[in-house]
């Protein structure tokens, strides 16, 4: 597409052209109205005058006879008013009037005739045009009454020319302005198009140009830049996740491969059985990882918000604590809840329970110093317009600088690496909170960690 | 936590199963082959249909005890098969087996008339336990007020439990757990089945919290008795002896 075609096809130019057409149309209508009210109306008035005069002369002829009409014509044609008269006898001779001879008579029934007129002004003779009404009177007399319409016609011509020039100027100015405007606009749109092409080609750091005038194009560019910013960070996150997934799967796969190869080499049935059993365990763990990733993705996508219902979070807390309390006691520690009932939230019971389960599980696993017994308190209360569910342990806690990092997928802190887990628990909790328009807060319990699920209170 | 190793365990290849006739409607023929083989090894008779049309035709004969239905099938999808069967008043219990394993997909499957839902991939032991549970549930009388397994008796009205005539005090959740186990006496019950039916949790907590609950229940009902009634089936789940 050549630059010119592109310019003509640009939407600004089309808009300008449309405006121009509208403008020309309205100017044309206005001028047409003026033309109608002046030139056309004047001509009509002239015709009307002529017709009245013909009527009057015919009346004269009827009432006062030939002499009467001759009188009147003579009187009237003597003054220099631009009026033309001619009365001829049945033989065609002039009887009265200021015309020399009868102009060409129209063939058809129409009575209107136009003919050239020579007007003497001093020594000069001008060519004018006369418009006249031709009629036959009783007795074979013929009457022509007309006016010199040269001035009128000239006036109409001037008006027509004015209209033409005005339209032409409007057209040229509008067209030129439209082209200029759209070229300017097109240049900026082209810059944006260029920038997006370059970003599509892989230059993720590229951004839309901003002119600094804060007009709508600038606002668009700024919005696009914000979007790009977010996409870039999401993509960076995805890249990290997929490389983490790859790493997380490679480790058990390598282990499985090595184990199976060793079993095959040994050839002992007992080794086969052991290798297969271990492989089942490993694939179970891999499936768990996959399922956790899927759950997180699902929660973060927020597609199932329609499945949320108003429920009392205190029953969820009680149920989860009841499920886990025996395990805590088995380890010589304790898990207890301190809940006020009536914590109504809009939630998915399964997901919220799963999130809470993860926090309690973490607290029991990591929430005790080595050799110490877990002491975990789960509380739920209303704070302002928020329901806050807290899982607090007395363990090592999480260092402030690690608190954001730890909710990312696969992040495991050094202290917990030796314990079982896939590093997805807190990511899931954070994803579930996102779905519920809530937040996961990790705070210092001095000592230990206080993990808080903060959810908006549901009020009908 | 290694509670499992300390418990009395029993490896059951064939327990007190009654052989069932099972129809597998699954388009992945290799997976179906393994499934049919496994079911046959467990003492059941399994037929296989590779597409929805064939499957519906076979299921309409009404000769099977349990149907295993995949959701995404050529010609007629799994949920439509179930709806058509129910329209024809064929109430054969259906286990839906599907890669669509989200909670909302489960709900969709159960609403369509499925009796149980298992997400792929699954453990064969889990599938077998659920299939036998379905076949057994179809035969049981629902209005019983007393449940019995060996010398253990549960009164559902007074919510009391006795073993060999001696009363046993249980917490409400322990009662529910025992009730579910006794209803499936003689059949293996997996941890996931317990989580779903006793706790109504359709997700997998990372730790085997169920084991502790079972060992507490066992301490209460097997204490002072020579023969343990609550058994752990390694690699599968738990079972209450019915004799």
The mean pLDDT of chain A is 84
* Helix residue percentage of chain A: 55-70%
Secondary-structure class of chain A: alpha+beta
Supply the CATH superfamily name of the largest domain in chain B. Response regulator
| Poorly predicted regions of chain A | none
Which assembly state applies to the chains in this document?
Answer: heterodimer
Structural features, described:
The complex is a heterodimer of chains A (460) and B (243). The longest helix of chain A is centred in the first third of the chain and has 68 residues, at 11-78. Chain A has helices spanning 3-9, 11-78, 150-200, 216-266, 269-301, 313-330, 349-366, 425-435, and strands at 83-88, 94-97, 112-121, 124-136, 142-148, 309-312, 334-339, 344-347, 375-383, 386-392, 439-444, 449-456. The model of chain A has no long low-confidence stretch (mean pLDDT 84). Chain A folds into three domains: 3-160, Beta-Lactamase (2-Layer Sandwich); 216-299, Orthogonal Bundle (Helix Hairpins), CATH 1.10.287; 305-456, Heat Shock Protein 90 (2-Layer Sandwich). In chain A, the strands form three sheets. A five-stranded antiparallel sheet of chain A has the order 2-1-5-4-3. In chain A, strands 7-9-10-12-11 form a five-stranded mixed sheet, covered by helices on one side. Chain A is an alpha+beta fold and 460 residues long. Chain B is of the alpha/beta class and 243 residues long. Chain B has two domains: 21-139, 3-Layer(aba) Sandwich (Rossmann fold); 143-240, Arc Repressor Mutant, subunit A (Orthogonal Bundle), CATH 1.10.10.10. Helices cover 37% and strands 20% of the residues of chain B. Chain B has eight helices and twelve strands. Chain B has helices at 29-41, 52-60, 78-87, 103-111, 124-139, 172-183, 191-198, 209-222, and strands at 21-25, 45-49, 66-70, 94-98, 116-119, 146-149, 152-155, 160-163, 166-168, 189-190, 230-233, 237-240. In chain B, the strands form three sheets. Chain B has a five-stranded parallel sheet with strand order 2-1-3-4-5, sandwiched between helices. A four-stranded antiparallel sheet of chain B has the order 6-7-8-9, covered by helices on one side. In chain B, strands 10-12-11 form a three-stranded antiparallel sheet. The radius of gyration of chain B is 19 Å and the shape is elongated. The model of chain B is unreliable at 1-16 (pLDDT under 50). Chains A and B meet through helix 5, helix 6 and helix 7 of A and helix 8 of B.
């Amino acid at each position: 597409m050549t630059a010119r075609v592109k310019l003509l096809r640009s939407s600004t130019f089309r808009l300008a052209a449309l405006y121009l057409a509208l403008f020309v149309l309205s100017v044309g209508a206005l001028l047409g109205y003026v033309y109608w009210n002046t030139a056309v109306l004047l001509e009509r008035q002239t015709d009307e005058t002529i017709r009245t005069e013909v009527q009057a002369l015919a009346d004269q002829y009827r009432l006062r006879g030939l002499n009467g009409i001759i009188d009147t014509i003579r009187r009237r044609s003597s003054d220099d008013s631009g009026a033309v008269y001619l009365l001829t006898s049945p033989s065609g001779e002039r009887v009265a009037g200021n015309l020399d001879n009868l102009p060409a008579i129209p063939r058809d029934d129409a009575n209107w005739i136009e003919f050239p007129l020579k007007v003497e002004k001093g020594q000069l003779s001008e060519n004018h045009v006369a418009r006249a009404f031709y009629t036959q009177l009783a007795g074979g007399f013929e009457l022509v009454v007309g006016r010199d319409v040269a001035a009128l016609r000239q006036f109409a011509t001037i008006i027509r020319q004015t209209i033409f020039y005005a339209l032409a100027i409007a057209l040229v100015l509008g067209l030129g302005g439209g082209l200029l405007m759209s070229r300017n606009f097109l240049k900026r749109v082209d810059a944006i198009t260029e920038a997006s092409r370059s970003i599509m080609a892989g230059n993720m750091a590229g951004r839309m140009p901003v002119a600094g005038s804060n007009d709508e194009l600038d606002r668009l560019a700024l919005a696009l830049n914000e979007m790009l910013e977010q996409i870039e960070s999401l993509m960076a996150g995805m890249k990290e996740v997929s490389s983490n997934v790859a790493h997380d799967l490679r480790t058990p796969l390598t282990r499985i491969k090595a184990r199976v190869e060793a079993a095959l080499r040994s050839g002992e049935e007992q080794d086969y059985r052991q290798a297969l059993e271990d492989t089942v365990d490993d694939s179970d763990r891999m499936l768990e990882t996959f399922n956790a990733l899927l759950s997180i993705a699902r929660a973060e996508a927020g597609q199932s918000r329609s499945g949320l219902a108003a429920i009392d979070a205190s029953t969820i807390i009680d149920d989860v604590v009841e499920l886990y309390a025996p395990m805590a006691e088995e380890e010589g520690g304790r898990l207890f809840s301190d809940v006020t009932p009536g914590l109504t939230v809009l939630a998915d019971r399964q997901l919220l329970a799963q999130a809470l389960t993860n926090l309690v599980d973490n607290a029991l696993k990591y929430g005790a110093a080595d050799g110490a017994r877990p002491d975990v308190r789960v509380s739920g209360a209303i704070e302002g317009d928020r329901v806050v569910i807290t899982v607090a342990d007395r363990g090592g806690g999480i260092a402030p600088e690690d608190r954001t990092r730890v909710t990312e997928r696969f992040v495991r802190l050094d202290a917990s690496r030796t314990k079982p887990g896939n590093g997805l628990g807190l990511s899931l909790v954070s994803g579930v909170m996102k779905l519920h328009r809530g937040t996961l807060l990790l705070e210092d319990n001095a000592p230990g960690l206080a993990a808080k699920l903060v959810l908006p209170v549901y009020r009908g | 936590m290694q509670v499992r190793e300390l418990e009395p365990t029993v490896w059951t290849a064939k327990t007190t199963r009654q052989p069932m006739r099972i129809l597998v409607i699954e388009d992945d023929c290799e997976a179906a082959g393994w499934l049919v083989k496994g079911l046959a090894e467990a003492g059941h008779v399994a037929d296989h249909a590779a597409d929805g049309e064939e499957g519906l035709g076979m299921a309409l004969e009404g000769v099977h005890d349990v149907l295993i239905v995949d959701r995404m099938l050529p010609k007629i999808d799994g949920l439509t098969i179930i709806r058509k069967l129910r329209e024809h008043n064929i109430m054969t219990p259906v286990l839906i087996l599907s890669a669509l394993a989200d909670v909302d997909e489960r709900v969709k499957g159960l609403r369509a008339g499925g009796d149980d839902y298992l997400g792929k991939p699954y453990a064969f032991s889990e599938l077998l336990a659920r299939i036998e549970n379905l076949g057994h549930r179809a035969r049981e009388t629902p209005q019983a007020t007393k449940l019995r397994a060996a010398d253990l008796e549960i009164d559902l009205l007074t919510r009391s439990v006795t073993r060999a005539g001696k009363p046993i005090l249980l917490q409400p959740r322990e009662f529910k757990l025992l009730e579910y186990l006794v209803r499936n006496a003689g059949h293996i019950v997996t941890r996931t089945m317990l989580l779903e039916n006793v706790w109504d949790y359709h997700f997998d907590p990372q730790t085997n919290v169920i084991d502790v609950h079972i060992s507490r229940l066992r301490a209460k009902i097997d204490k002072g008795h020579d023969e343990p009634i609550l058994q752990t089936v390694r690699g599968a789940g738990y079972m209450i002896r019915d004799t």
